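re: ur question from earlier - yeah i can do the single chain one, its not a big deal. heres the input i used so u can compare w yours
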Amino acid sequence: MKDLKEKLFRNQKNGWFGNKEEIFEFSKEYINFLNVCKTERETVNFVKTFFSKHSKQELIFVNRNKNVALVRLGKENGMRLIASHIDSPRIDLKQNPIFEDSNLCLFHTHYYGGIKKYQWLNIPLSLHGIIVKSDLEIIEFNLGENEDDPVFVIPDLLPHLSKKVIDEKVVKEAFDADKLNLIVGSIPFSKEEKDQIKLNILKILSENYGISEEDFISAEITLTPAFKAKDAGFDRSLIAGYGQDDRICAYTSLKAFFDSKKAPQTQVVLMIDKEEIGSEGNTSAQSSFLFEIAIEILKAKKIEPTFENIISFFKTSECLSADVNGAVNPMYKEVHEKDNASYINNGVVLTKFTGHGGKYMANDANAEFVGKIRKIFNDNNAVWQTGELGKVDEGGGGTIAKYIANHNIETIDCGPALISMHSPYEISSKADLYETYKAYKAFLSY
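and the output i got, formated as tokens:
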């Protein structure tokens, strides 16, 4: 019976029974990456710098400073593509943000992506982004990360006055998006009655950055948690940090790309924007950027980029849609179906389909391709698991997989599982981080 079980039952492995020293060493640079890259623009800049230090004959393509693709040419048709997204749920400033109320100066905001609004109240926030002035000079903005920087706060209502909110309102109604206003100052410029605190804040911004109120109209300023990514747990086996959905996949694919050997097919690592709001716009997975990459690859291989050749290139390509899954939270196990859930420490997750309900809005990977990926991971001793995003009809979510697959590219979602996904402080396993890197490297190299 024991022999039969070993032969027929699936043996789920734990990633910590590998090389612990390599796992811990690999995680150090990743934690630094999380602390440096809190927006898509910062991530692209990091990749460009990393590329300049490590590139030999590889190619790099950048789209509007929010997308980046790394390419290593191969002789055969098609590509092995790992595609992640580098935007994360956050809060943005509105175009006319600054106002004064109740002896405070505040900024109006608009949340981006699927957040739980209450998680962003009364935590230290930093400001990241760019401001484009009327003369088109670009001012980069990063305030709140350094030890001596001020931080910013969206204030919550004190519990003493929250009876109606707690007793009478559901969560959706209790936390009003129009009340997610950021406190930015309180000193008046003079004793005049109106907008003196606002004037003082604008004076500080003018002196420090040379900007006026109108400059915010052509700005992209983002609020991100000001706390640092750190080891978590007595054994330091976990990583707590903002933006791990989906920068954990971006980082592991970047490392895998430069650590993998040249393969018969062209190897591509792609990082894109706007996944968290449905992949719309000219920096998203639905933009023409993937076509542009295909055209440039064909031209570099001395192949005319006709429509027919581009279609042939896509048809012979394969993609890991590098995105995370939701690990089982032991306090909320009821939202998962345990036999088809993903767990911390069990390696990278193969997610055959996402979507919601009856697989709506999902890419459902073909069985032949799933089998191929299984073999690649098994042959290279990459610890992996499979999982769905919760019980059927419990909720669900989507990735960029369906947009990649629409080009007739074989595609499957593949990334580690996180606890507290979309929160300001997501939790990942260092073992899963390392196994994801191994899996991506194996895919690029086979």
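The chain has a mean pLDDT of 95. not sure if urs matches, ping me
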